[in-house]
Specification:
alpha/beta, two-stranded antiparallel ribbon, 10 strands
């Protein structure tokens, strides 16, 4: 039986609560998709021993919940300095290993960041690393989702990768792996100068997309707002994406867990008003 639109909208726990608490919340409120970061407490990667992994797997299975992990964008996938470069590989492999133990279904990964003068070298480094990590993910049967990150002001020295449709397409052209797909962060596209959500989607191969990440935005700079507080047209967004035949899940990423839960109702109502089958 096909899930309703509301059932396909999940929650990004981040590092707000212990994973077990987040799963219990999801089960109580009929949330079927969860994202979590496992860098530091209360979900530090090292804390997931065999018993904790077993308990998480069981709770997700009983609740019909699909779990994904989310690496930290502050870890530079484009790192090329001695020692640090090896640590980034180990970090990403550790996330894959943990995802397998938790029976997670995907891992959100990033394309790194550059410091203006070294942009080309950083992109090359990030792509080579993601090729290696994608091969490791293939061996482990894990799916990686590359996120389009947020634009920074023109005078910013540090800039994320990939941000634009052209950058995203370049990564996917260079990394031909069935283990690497795309997570589309709509609010990042919304305030990308000269682009916007519809144009971003039109410039991409949307068949690559497995997840759409959601938050409202003021249209000017990076801020994850509660739906209705910003200028993102959720009705038009859902009409565009659902009209392409997208069958994947959405993930709310803003404010509190309660806000993300109630935000689903706002989003579904906007989609209904736009004529989307909900």
């Amino acid at each position: 039986m096909a899930q309703s639109l509301k059932d396909r909208i999940g929650i990004d726990l981040g590092r707000r609560v212990p994973l077990e608490e987040g799963i219990a919340f999801a089960r109580q409120n009929q949330v079927f998709y969860l994202d979590a970061q496992t860098d530091i407490e209360p979900n530090a990667l090292e804390s997931f021993d065999a018993e904790r992994c077993r308990a998480v797997r069981q709770a997700c299975e009983e609740g019909g919940i699909k779990l994904g992990l989310h690496t930290l964008s502050g870890v530079n996938v484009a790192e090329f300095s001695p020692f640090c470069r090896d640590a980034v590989d180990q970090y990403l492999k550790a996330y894959i290993d943990l995802a397998v133990k938790l029976d997670a279904k995907w891992i959100v990964v990033h394309g790194g960041y550059h410091f203006t003068a070294c942009r080309k070298r950083r992109i090359e480094t990030a792509i080579e690393r993601l090729k290696r990590i994608s091969e490791y993910a293939e061996q482990k049967g894990m799916l990686l989702l590359l996120e389009n990150l947020n634009w920074e002001p023109v005078l910013a020295e540090v800039n994320y990768l990939p941000v634009t449709p052209a950058e995203c397409k370049y990564y996917f052209e260079k990394i031909q792996s069935p283990a690497l797909k795309w997570t589309f962060t709509a609010n990042h596209a919304h305030f990308l100068p000269g682009v916007g959500i519809e144009s971003f989607i039109d410039q991409m191969d949307f068949d690559l997309c497995r997840e759409v990440r959601l938050a409202d935005n003021n249209g000017s700079y990076e801020i994850h707002q509660i739906p209705g507080e910003g200028t993102l047209d959720f009705g038009a967004m859902f009409k565009k994406i659902e009209g392409l035949g997208f069958k994947g899940h959405y993930t709310n990423g803003f404010a509190s867990i309660d806000d993300m839960l109630t935000g689903r109702d706002y989003m579904v109502e906007r989609a209904r008003e736009a004529g989307v089958k909900i």
